Amino acid sequence: MKKLIILIISAFFALQLKAQPNNYPNEIYLGVKGGTTFSRVRFNPTVKQVMLKGYSGGIVFRDISEPHVGIQVELNYSQRGWKEHTDAGVDYERQLDYFVLPIMTHVNIGNNGFRFFINLGPSVSYLYTDKEIFNPAADATYTPNDYYGKPVDAAFDFQFVGGLGFEWRFKDGNGLMLDTRLYYSLPSLFNTKKSSYDSSQLQTIEVSMAYLFRLNKEKKD
Hints:
The chain is mainly β.
């Protein structure tokens, strides 16, 4: 899996570098972002759950190296996990905090005032904290899932991420971005050889807003 991740990311960078023309004036941006996450885990067999709400924030770097196409790299702190509520009166919440590094192709359509964009690419995450909140009712009768009280096995997570959004651009070259995206994890949170679940893949929806500062302002004649 690690070799596959390195190969995909290396190929992604190689394609980006190969696509860069020499005669297009790059648009280079650096900004800050913040937003809300909604996440769950795709268990097999299925576990009844609801979306867990969290928060995210970080920094954004974007380099548009040719008309309407560029690369966007971010470093974010993201709260993820899942939440269970059973008919037996069991409330279980798993809070997973990650540092997230998405590396995405950025494609936009529009003009100097307003743009629609799509971002697509791989993302690598590192699990920073793993916290359980377990509140069974006093008279609850239940069979605990085998991951209760067990730490997550995968400290690193590899996802595919895709999203779309809008950007309002100001006269000074800066921009305000509204972005919605989906992260889909490939590895399982828990080792399938040690767990009764064939898969436990994290799925996260993120809605965020960012303010981007253009670093190379357009020269006025």
